[in-house]
UniProtKB/TrEMBL annotation:
Ranges of residues in domain Metalloprotease TldD/E C-terminal: 222-436
Name of the protein in its database record: TldD/PmbA family protein
Species for this entry: Planktothricoides sp. SpSt-374
Molecular function terms, GO-annotated: metallopeptidase activity
GO BP annotation list: proteolysis
Transmembrane feature ranges: none
Length: 442
């Protein structure tokens, strides 16, 4: 990793503040090392590593501001970046959505997840793990592809009115797609430590599911009960959370918007029973499976917040500008997402399903109607018909057109949550989910 420690980053921020001639200055430092090994058709195809450092300096004169950045760490380059941001700010027009600098904050007293073994994980060690995956794929007659990556990251921020924060964390990620004849399956696992990745277990499960997905049958398109894996549901849930934005709701551009009898915007739908009572979603960066940072890039606190409770939206995400315009406290982004689950497994949910579809992965999700939050997308990498509480046979992949608020209203079972990227999501069952056509995707 770049030889940057948190204390050094904060010292550099102090130096930049002292050198600044602007009325206000904000500094953001991001530094880290990422390493990635890719494999395809059962052999490693790429080993790369990247060591990066970026210093961004935003200078302001009144409501006029500008940002300049550098990846150089010598003081001459940093001084030049300071002056360049000041010069640009002096000629910049006033920002109509200007907000003042964030004052000093009191962040949670905890340390983000950091694993020394992951920070120093070597290409040889990555290669040994992927050697197992490739050899196992060959043994099972499958074609395996995917990646294994590690990341060590440092973030530090500060400004001229005393805001200071810095944190470091690690992340490891394993992704694997197995193809066997015309069958396919996929898995992905993210963890703080590379040693916590369930590589062997997930490799075997993915190959088995690829084998089971061969020779898919066709079904009549329509609405069916659907059981989603955590990864598939995470892809859809994030669209709902992204759209819990106060400004779009207040301006009448969101499913969270209320309108009067003339159709004009009339507030938002906070406090209404919009979803199933099973839906409980929080912003929870301190969750044991995540242990992410305590602050956002603009300096706001990334603290715990109820987003949806018992199916009722509790709050909306306010940008600093919109919070200022509405006279409320800025709350920062709704990230990371954690959805509360239950004690039953994915297999338990399947066992309680008389008839329906198991979706392993939701793919290429796009808007159909942003106002109503109707989206379209496809299933892929293993879609199965459920009959009498068991997986009966694979089916052809399907395209769906679905209102996501309706999807959350129709949830009638949830299971044990797991980490999906930087979210924690359970498997769920939805009473009705709308499929519109068969696709050629694998």
């Amino acid at each position: 990793m770049t030889n940057f420690k948190e204390e050094q980053a904060l010292d550099l921020i102090d130096s930049i503040v002292k050198q600044s001639k602007a009325e206000g200055v904000f500094i953001s430092i991001s530094a880290g090392e990422s390493a990635l090994s890719r494999f395809s058709e059962n052999q490693i195809t790429q080993n790369i590593s990247r060591n990066q450092c970026k210093i961004s300096i935003t200078s302001a004169f009144g409501k006029c501001e500008a940002t300049s950045s550098t990846s150089e760490l010598d003081m001459d380059a940093i001084l030049a970046t300071i002056r360049r941001s000041e010069e640009l700010a002096r000629v910049a027009p006033e920002d109509p959505e200007w907000v003042p600098l964030v004052p000093p904050q009191t962040y949670e007293a905890r340390t983000p997840g950091f694993d020394e073994a992951t920070a120093s994980f070597s290409p040889l060690e990555r290669g040994k793990i992927l050697q197992y995956v490739c050899q196992r794929s060959i043994k099972e007659g499958a074609s395996g592809s995917g990646s294994l990556s590690t990341k060590t990251f440092l973030s530090a921020i500060g400004n001229s009115i005393g805001l200071r924060a810095a944190a470091s964390y690690t992340e490891a990620d394993f992704s694997f797609t197995a193809r066997l004849d015309h069958g396919s399956s996929w898995c992905n696992h993210t963890a703080i430590a590379v040693g916590d990745l369930l590589v062997e277990e997930m490799t075997l499960e993915t190959i088995a599911k690829a084998r089971a997905s061969r020779n898919p049958r066709s079904i009549t398109v329509g609405s069916y009960p659907v059981v989603f894996t955590p990864a598939a549901f995470a892809t859809l849930l994030q669209w709902v959370i992204w759209n819990l934005d106060a400004r779009t709701a207040d301006e009448g551009r969101s499913f969270m918007s209320r309108t009067d009898h003339t159709g004009k915007p009339d507030g938002n739908r906070i406090g209404e029973q919009l979803f199933s009572p099973l839906v409980q979603v929080q912003r929870h960066s301190a969750h044991p499976l995540l242990q992410l940072g305590t602050f956002f890039g603009d300096g706001l606190k990334n603290d715990y917040r109820e987003i949806i409770k018992d199916g009722i939206p509790q709050s909306l995400s306010y940008s600093r500008y919109w919070a200022q315009a509405q006279g409320v406290e800025p709350r920062g982004a709704f990230y990371p997402i954690v959805m509360t689950g239950a004690a039953q497994s994915l297999e338990d949910i399947i066992a309680s399903t008389e008839q329906g579809i198991l979706v392993t992965r939701a793919w290429y999700v796009r808007y159909v109607n942003p106002r109503t939050l109707e989206v379209t997308g496809m299933t892929r990498d293993g879609t199965f018909w459920i009959e009498n509480g068991a997986i009966a046979y694979p089916i052809q992949n399907l395209r769906f057109n679905q209102s996501l608020p309706q999807m959350l209203r129709d949830i009638d079972a949830i299971g044990i949550p797991q980490r999906c990227g930087n979210s924690v999501i359970p498997p769920v069952r939805v009473r009705q989910f709308n499929f519109t056509s068969v696709t050629d995707s694998v």
